[in-house]
Amino acid sequence: MEETISLKELLQTLRKRLALILAITLTAVIISGVVSFFFLTPIYQASTQLLVNQKKDDQVMLNTNELQTNLQLINTYNVIIKSPAILDIVAEQLGTGLTATQINGKITVGSEADSQVVNISVQDEDPKMAAEIANTIANVFSTEIVNIMNVDNVSILAKATVGEGQAPIKPQPLLNIAIALVVGLMAGVGLAFLLEYLDNTVKNEQDVEKLLELPILGVISVIEESKMEEAKARRHARKTKVRGETFGS
């Protein structure tokens, strides 16, 4: 006999396990909020931009071949920026005790498609340090690339700055809480249906019918003790009244 589950049964399961679902969801939200606000260290980001463009004294416009060459060089520059040849000098100039490997883990280098602009982003717990690292990398690279590749086609387009009241890029507590809300709700609903599926106890006549695959002929109602006492009291009152009327006549 194939079993089917109606929408009504699904809603009844959700209503039955509503307390469990809310408890799991609320727990997930509280844990996410506490961890985001009190345990995760805020990380700030500062960015600088480099322009890859061959300097021309006697030409105003770059021809197509020179532009394509500059675009191809960007991928090479992205690698060089994160190389020890640049970061060792950056670490020395910063004088903060950071190694080239540690600085490498803080920076991200990239560029837009078909763009001659290289973006250097630095993440650090201190926004001022992030900006200082980014600017130092830009300065060192624009200077050292002349010796490394014997070219002079890099200029600093924009320096990294620290904004007043700059907000960290991570963690994002509200986003984390929203994700925890959705995950907690899904986990609660899933657990509710799992418990209902594993619950094989017989609760009503419909369960008996499904289990035995036989039609229900009759149901014995459950009478609560309080109602039985009320019924006894009414019968006793009627008997007392009848006796009184008999003796009175």
Automatic annotation (TrEMBL):
Subcellular location: Cell membrane
Coiled-coil annotated residue ranges, if any: none
GO-annotated cellular components: plasma membrane
Gene Ontology molecular function: protein tyrosine kinase activity
Alphabetized UniProt keyword annotations: Cell membrane, Membrane, Transmembrane, Transmembrane helix
Spans through the membrane: 18-40, 174-195
Domain Polysaccharide chain length determinant N-terminal: 3-94
Membrane topology term: Multi-pass membrane protein
PANTHER family: FERRIC ENTEROBACTIN TRANSPORT PROTEIN FEPE (PTHR32309:SF13), TYROSINE-PROTEIN KINASE (PTHR32309)
Protein name in the entry: Capsular polysaccharide biosynthesis protein
